[in-house]
From TrEMBL:
Binding of N-formimidoyl-L-glutamate, residues: Y154, N330, G332
EC number: 3.5.2.7
Positions with a binding annotation for 4-imidazolone-5-propanoate: R91, Y154, H188, E256, S333
Lineage of source species: Bacteria, Bacillati, Bacillota, Tissierellia, Tissierellales
Protein name: Imidazolonepropionase
Cell location: Cytoplasm
Length: 418
């Protein structure tokens, strides 16, 4: 078999070899490390992974591209499985409010926060949203991200804006090297119009919006912001169950600020992930572990909210919950596209080991999007999504924080960044 690309002499090759399912407990530390590693790619597929030299059945020719991996660390492409990629405007005006002690939910209650992004997204044209999101994707790719989840949620009751966001994500998925997986998050805030009768909006979501999004094949997942003053557990349950009826896999923004019972609901509803979980109860965590719901943790959001509260990652891992990590990139609670910073925060603040961190950002991230058979590890037969870090080892990437360590990114067997 012919190799189109060979990466050789790799000082530290992190393969993540192992079962194609969420990794738990000590499995999160088995990163399949190969020293003096070598990887061969044919077109978009990984055809050989090993150590030392290529075996004779892998042919190389004049057109084979050789990359020297000495002094480098090579990992599977990073997966950012929770973002609000497509939106209009920005919210730096909230910084002063936060510094004056105003909370995220206070700003939302006043009609700011998500509501101000709803306004900006409604006013933005398809092209404006496309150009802004493309810029963010370029940044994400430069930081080693090769697969991204993108949520709607800045149209809420304005269904045309919800659809516009999803159509932008669809077009970007076709045009940009990064793969984009869409999530319908119509249940992101209670619209002003429905302030006094939020159940009516839940009805609209269930009867009109979810069926239409599903019929148009615009999303793989259905998400809800289950939080005090936003959607209750009961309303969230209804929304997620309606999504399931229309083949939308449930996901949930759970227990981000108040311990409402979102983690418990995630287990009950069979969510693929529960995200945030900063205030998740012990009982909720136990139930998530039993149901193998992935905890998608977003430490850069906690950092930016300035509350000092972070998800209890150590406890979750010890309880047997598979953990993934994402940016939560959005204009309010987390204006950064930088997955490497998230990885550093996960270790420096939430005390995850570098091995757990890379597992969470690759294999478990792939599982968070239901893509574990195709991506998440560097193994024969998998799609060639690979990052070459100009770092001698994994610890260095995480410890030397706040900068970009990426040297090259390979997506579907093509060098898309160098
Ligand atoms: O995951 N918490 C709800 N949604 C987003 C924030 C969206 C926004 O503030 O615009 C989050 O943090
Ligand atoms: Fe979010």
């Amino acid at each position: 078999m012919k190799a189109t690309i060979v990466i050789k002499n790799i000082s530290n090759l992190i393969t993540m070899e192992g079962p194609n399912r969420p990794r738990v407990k000590e499995e999160m530390r088995n990163i399949g490390l190969i020293q003096n590693g070598i990887v061969a790619i044919n077109e978009d597929e990984i055809i050989y992974v090993g150590n030392g030299k290529l075996p004779s059945h892998i042919e190389v020719g004049e057109e084979t591209i050789f990359i020297d991996g000495s002094g480098k660390t090579v990992t599977p492409g990073l997966v950012d499985s929770h973002t609000h990629l497509v939106h209009g405007g920005s919210r730096e005006n909230e910084l002063a409010m936060k510094l004056n002690g105003m909370g995220y939910l206070d700003i939302l209650k006043m009609g700011g926060g998500i509501h101000s992004t709803v306004k900006a997204t409604k006013e933005a044209s398809f092209e404006e949203l496309y150009d802004k999101a493309k810029k963010s994707l370029d940044i994400m790719l430069s930081y080693g991200v090769t697969t991204v989840e993108a949520k709607s949620g800045y149209g809420i009751d304005d269904f045309d804006t919800e659809l516009k966001q999803l159509e932008v994500a669809k077009k970007l998925n076709e045009d940009h090297p990064i793969d984009i997986i869409s999530t319908f998050l119509g249940a992101h805030a209670i619209p002003e119009k429905y302030k006094e009768n939020s159940n009516e909006f839940v009805d609209k979501l269930i009867k009109e919006m979810i069926p239409e999004v599903s019929n148009r094949h615009l999303a793989k997942f259905c998400d809800v912001f289950c939080e005090e003053g936003v959607f209750s557990v009961e309303q969230s349950r209804k929304i997620l169950n309606a999504g399931k009826k229309y083949d939308l896999i449930p996901k949930i923004h759970a227990d981000e600020i108040k311990p409402l019972g979102g983690a418990e609901l995630a287990a009950e509803a069979g969510c693929i992930t529960a995200d945030h979980l900063v205030a998740a109860s012990d009982e909720g965590m136990k139930k998530m572990a039993e149901s193998r719901v992935i905890a998608n943790l977003l430490p850069a959001t906690s950092f930016n909210l300035q509350t000092g509260n972070f998800a209890k990652a150590r406890k979750m891992i010890e309880t047997g919950i598979p953990v993934s990590l994402s940016t939560d990139y959005n204009p309010g609670s987390c204006p950064t596209e930088n997955m490497q910073l998230v990885m550093s925060f996960a270790s420096l603040i939430m005390k995850m080991t570098p091995e757990e961190v890379i597992t969470a950002a690759t294999m478990n991230g792939a599982c968070a999007l239901g893509l574990e058979k195709k991506i998440g590890s560097i193994e024969k037969g998998k799609q060639a999504d690979i990052v070459i870090f100009d770092s001698p080892n994994l610890n260095y990437i995480i410890y030397h924080f706040g900068i970009n360590h990426v040297e090259k990114v390979i997506k579907k067997g093509i060098i898309v960044r160098e």
